Amino acid sequence: MNQKSIAIAAIGAIVIGAVGYLIGVEVAGRGPSTAVTEAAIKSYLADHPDLVAPPAEKTTDVALLSDAQLDQVKDTIRSHLIANPEIIRDAIDELQRRQDEEAAQAQVSAITKNKDLLFNSERQVVLGNPDGDTTLVEFFDYNCGYCRRAQADMKALIADDPKLRVVLKEFPVLGDGSVEAARVSIAVRIVAPDKAADFHDTLLDHPGQVNGDVALALADELGIDGAALKKAMESEEVSDTIAESYSLATELSLTGTPSYVTSGEVVIGAVGYDALHDKIQTARANCADSTTC
Predict the structure, then answer these.
(1) Which tens digit of pLDDT belongs to each residue from 201-220?
(2) Geometric angle at alpha carbon 144, from 138 and 146, rounded to 5°
């Protein structure tokens, strides 16, 4: 091993030791996750394969560092890291940035792969302009408080943008009540598609938790045939609709509701009118084919 390799090994030992310290801090509940620190170690070793594998060819006539010199290198690096601990923080921040970038790229690939189901599935409700040039997909849960508050933003976006097409995807993730309400909503789309949008608004506007009974009662207030709804709820179409949404959510790595999808990115959370407006405009500007926007 030459001097360069020894120096790299010394740096690696110090850095890995520092990361190991951070893992200990994490156990006490005060630091970054073990997954992040383990990834940092793996990333470091991947960048320096000579630490885990023999060099491709041996070098000769290179003076090695003495034990005293090696200790001096270690002490110098250690002192520098202690004096500048933000180096470790910055390294972990950079690792997280790279992981987030990779995740976003994976989501874009998933959008492209699943664009037909995302934008043109028959198992969805369409709001706004059905022939609009840009589509915004929303994954929601009727018991999600953030979804309820975000509904005002959605209405405003539709009112302000006559070319916006909005697709609703049932994504019941907050318990059995949410699943029951979603089944009623899908049945409404099957039995009375012309009232699906009104039912969606009515259920989101309802105070308190909703379930199948609440959803059926609200559907009755809108004049929708209850017997027909109950029959439709038992159909495979209802189950297949929910399964399709779950599958898409998994492909897109959705972590909660509301989640939004444009032709170019995934947006998690109730980010507000302005942020969604910007995302829509970006998708519109970047889309070369209006049929896939």
Answers:
(1) 999 999 999 999 999 999 99
(2) 75
Q: For strand 266-268 and strand 164-170, is the pairing parallel, antiparallel, or unpaired?
A: unpaired
259 secondary structure, DSSP code: E
Which residue in the block uniquely carries the two structure tokens 């000579």? 50
Q: How far apart are CA 149 and CA 59, in angstroms?
A: 67
Extract the tokens encoding 205: 């506007």
Interaxial angle between packed helices 86-113 and 67-83, expressed in degrees from 0 to 180 and rounded to the nearest 10: 80
> Exposure string (b/e) for 51-77, b if CB count within 10 Å is 16 or more?
beeeeeeeeeeeeebeeeebeebbeeb
Pick from 94, 87, 82: nearest CA to 40: 94
Strand pairing partners for 134? 164
Contact between residue 113 and residue 106 where contact means Cβ atoms under 8 Å apart = no
Phi, psi of 286 (to 5 degrees): -90, -5
Give the C-alpha separation, 28 to 25, whole Å: 5
Q: Which residue has the higher pLDDT, 102 or 274?
A: 274
The DSSP letter of residue 132 is -
Q: Is the confidence at residue 30, as pLDDT, over 50?
A: no
Per the confidence metrics, is the pTM higher than 0.70? no
Strand order, beta sheet including 134-140: 125-128, 164-170, 134-140, 259-261, 266-268
The string of pLDDT tens digits covering residues 264-279 is: 999 999 999 999 999 9
